[in-house]
Fold Protein CLP1 homolog.
Amino acid sequence: MSEEIQPSMDYNLEADSELRFEVEDKNAKVYVTLISGFAEMFGTELVKKKKYEFVMGAKVAIFTYHGCVLHLAGKTEVSYISKETPMIQYLNCHAALEQMRVVAEEKDERGPVVMVVGPMDVGKSTLCRILLNYAVRLGRRPLYADTDVGQGSLSIPGTIGTILVERPASIEEGVSQTAPLIYHFGHKTPSGNSVLYKAVISKMAEVTLESMNENKRTKHSGIIINTCGWVKGDGYANLVHTAQAFEVNAIFVLDQERLYNELLRDIPSFVRVVLLPKSGGVVERSKDLRAENRDLRIKEYFYGHKTPLYPFSFEVKFADLKLYKIGAPPLPDSCMPLGMKVMV
C-alpha cells in the first residue's frame, strides 16, 4: 500500500516562542522532529533528530528558550508560531518552588505542597505537568495528586489518585502511570456526591502525606495537586477542603481573578496564593469532546497507548454455538498394557 504524500514544513522558532498545532482528523498522524537547537513540550525536552508521533485529539505546544528549527509533517487542523506565552512566568513559579525545596532540605521539613486551580480549559493539567517535569529534571521526586474525576490522567474516569514521579513525562504518552495509588469515586463530577468526594479526598491526602515520610527525597520534593474545573458553590468548597486536607502552602490560580480573591479571603495567610495567566494555546473542549476523552481514557486503561494488535469482540447467541472436542480417537483396550484401560 503506497503512502499518501503528507504536507510538511520547517518552522524556525526564535527564543521564548512556541509552535502550536492541533490534530483533529480521526485518521491523521502528525510527526514532529527537532532539527536543531533546543525545545521542550510541557517541560519534557525533545531529542534531536527523533520523530514524535501525534494522533487525533493532540493539542500541542512546543516551546524553546534559545531558538530551534522544527520539522512538522502531516495534516493538522491549525499550526502556527506564537511569541505570546506564559512559559517564563511558569518557569519563575518552578524557581520559587525549588527555593522552597532547598529550604525544606536544610530544615528536613516537608517540601512545597502546591495546588493548581482554575475553571475548565485553562491549562491546569498542563501547568502541573510542566512543574513536575522541571522538578524531575533537577533530580527531585515529587508526588502528583490528580483530584479531577472527570478528566484525570492517572486512571479511568470516576477515580482520583496519587503517583510518584521519577522521570520526565513521555512526549507522546504523558506522565508515567506505574504503580499509582487510586481511589474509586464513581461519578464523573464531584457534584455526583460531594460528601463522598470530600471523604475520598481526605483519605487520599492522609495516605499521601504519610507516604512522604518514608523517603526524604520525596518529602523534600513536595506534591503538585491538579483539581477539577468546578470553582463555584460546592465546587469552591471542595477546593478549600482539598487545600486543608493536603495542608497546602501554595496555590496557583489560573486565569480567574474572582477565584484568586476568594482564596485570598478564605485561605490562611501563610499559604501563598499566586494568580497566573493561561496560555493562549489552551483550547476549549465541548461536552462531546470531554465524553470522547473519557472513553479514550477507558480504552487506554485496558489496551495502552499503542496497540500492535487490533482485538475485536462479537456478540453471539449461545444457541448458535457448536462445541467440538478436538483430539485423536481413543485407542482400543487391546492396545493398552495388561490391566490398563483407556480413560475418556
